[in-house]
Amino acid sequence: MRTRFLFVRHGDSLHKQEGVTGGPRSCRGLTVAGREQARRLGRRLAAEIAGTGASVYSSVLPRAVETAAAISAVCGLPFSRDSQDCGLCTWHIPPEADGLSNEEFLRRFPAEGGGVHRPFQVGNESWAELVTRVSRTVADLAHRHRGETVIVVGHAETVEVSFNALGLLPAYRSFDLEVSPASVTEWVTDEDPGQWPPPRWTLTRFNET
Ligand SMILES: O=C(O)[C@H](O)COP(=O)(O)O
């Protein structure tokens, strides 16, 4: 019984191009190149999951939703509003910061003493809160889809948290991870994802473009 998670970062996005925070109000989805990346990735994944099927989930932000919709369309998999989960989002920034340039966000919302448990900006999540939120969502999906393949379309942080949720790394790690647009990171286990103690997952590829 193999359970397989394919974590995908969204394709090239307008928020990156424009240098804005890109929350629910200001995210305007993918660039033209990003849409093509998503379709190309969909074709690759369609070949990989042929015969096994998969379930597709995304965050609620348009850049992830568009990427997931493109992948699902190419693969012939269902994808609806019910497949979109805020638990898979990147940072939950304060609503007043949504749409600001990144520089302005850092300038107007500084929080001294930011760390693992205290946020780096006023009103933002802490890293530990983000890790817990995303990990909880991934754990629920693993439980619901034991023995199946799950495609999770999110953000750089969603992919990073796969190391906490499945690899059980502590929240603080002493190295950084580079996560490219439209990349795939895969974890598999042949153990029961719902067992206690937790199963051992294997990282079979990271940031594959
Ligand atoms: O830089 C950002 O806006 C956040 O880290 C979100 O990451 P994303 O570009 O993968 O959505």
TrEMBL record:
InterPro entries reported in the protein's UniProt record: His_Pase_superF_clade-1, His_PPase_superfam, PGM_Phosphatase
CC per GO annotation: cytoplasm
Any Pfam family matching the protein: His_Phos_1
Name of the top EC class for this enzyme: isomerase
Keywords: Isomerase
GO-annotated molecular function: phosphatase activity; phosphoglycerate mutase activity
Superkingdom, natural source: Bacteria
EC number: 5.4.2.12
SMART domains attached to this UniProt entry: PGAM
Name listed for the protein in its UniProt record: Putative phosphoglycerate mutase
